[in-house]
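# step 3/5: fold
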Amino acid sequence: MDVIAMDKKNILILSTGDVNGAYEAAYKVAHIIKNMGHDVVMCVKHKTKNENFIKQYRHLSLSSAKANLVMRIVNKIKNKISPVEPSKVISTDMKYSFLSKNEASENIHIESMLKIVGFTPDFVFTGMTIDFLNSTDMLNIYNATKAKIYNITVDMNHFTGGCHYSWGCEGYIKGCGKYCPAITKEHEKITAKNNFERKYENAQKANFQIIAGSGLTLLQAQNSKIYKSQKTIHNINSLIDTKLLNSKNKSIAKKVFSLSNDCFYILTGAQNMEDPRKGFSYLLQALEMLDIELPMQKKEKIVLLVVSNSVNEEFGRVTFKKQKIDYIKDYRLLSLLYQAADLFINTSIEDSGPMMVSEALACGTPVVGFDTGILTNMVIDDYNGYKAPVMDSRKLAEGIRKVFELNKDDYENFSKNAVRQVEEFSSYEYAEEIFKQILEQ
């Protein structure tokens, strides 16, 4: 700690928001680096949390009229050299989450941001910044500060032409061309090509670096045209606070939710189960297979716990006992729910996470799911769960049955291994070591 204190850095974290999913990940990064002894400001478009280190961006009027005049002249020259068209609504296939409409636009005033932040950053870390800033804004920040810039892959957007999920498209590997499956109107498809080329150009000029948020996005970043030449790509694997999410109360967790010790509880869920990326139809198929194959005395022990804001209507046809639980935001209660469950299932077919996988493992709950996202390197067959090929309901059912039929000692080993995997590759302590390496460069 003394070494870090002697070489204290100014760190800027950029994110559209500070709560939920990808925004929560940026908040965790801010906390980890702040606890390492550095000066940290998290600048967001929408502020929800009360912490003082989180500051909301707003455009400030420059005190000097002369400075305003200079900026107007500079912008006028820029627009003459390279005109920037205003962002427009384009027609897209929603499953790709093509949200970056214009990488050439400038969305923030750098002097305003630096004045709000209160220092010139040495390092900048960005997560999800949709509807806030883009790679051109990041280049402008670099030009003004010469800070080292790291983009964190909460999804694929940092190295695509605009989509957050590729669904098999290899544009991020080759460079987005005139054909883009995410954009539905022919004359608008050029948007992806223009975005990608601007992103690539900006990354080269400012030497952007990437940090992976999961095993899958690590592989994708390593193959991407924009970041394939980066020598080392670190992977922070979700970032789990093991002081909150752990297995210390596993022996009493079922009592908290009035669950029976004689039943086997399968936990699954998402904020929106209707999202096709989450692949819940494959879980339904796997459960139907188990319904046919398991003898009645075993089937009666299985209870499905579903956590979601909205439950897919098709879950009504599941014959196993089931119980809906409202989406939980309190991490202490969520930790107890994970500990109360005997198995967590993730059926995402196109996902960079989800964080729920690492959260469940941290609480000593084995995981079964498709080999994508965070499962790629956090779930190990016959160790802490099972991985099935994406969209393979048969293999998914087999993985569920294997965990269900583990004897007590083998299950205990799976549970301990789940915790160990998070402590070694997904904990705050693990992430701190990674950020220490980065900040000491």
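# step 4/5: annotate
The longest helix spans residues 408-425.
# step 5/5: archive (pending)
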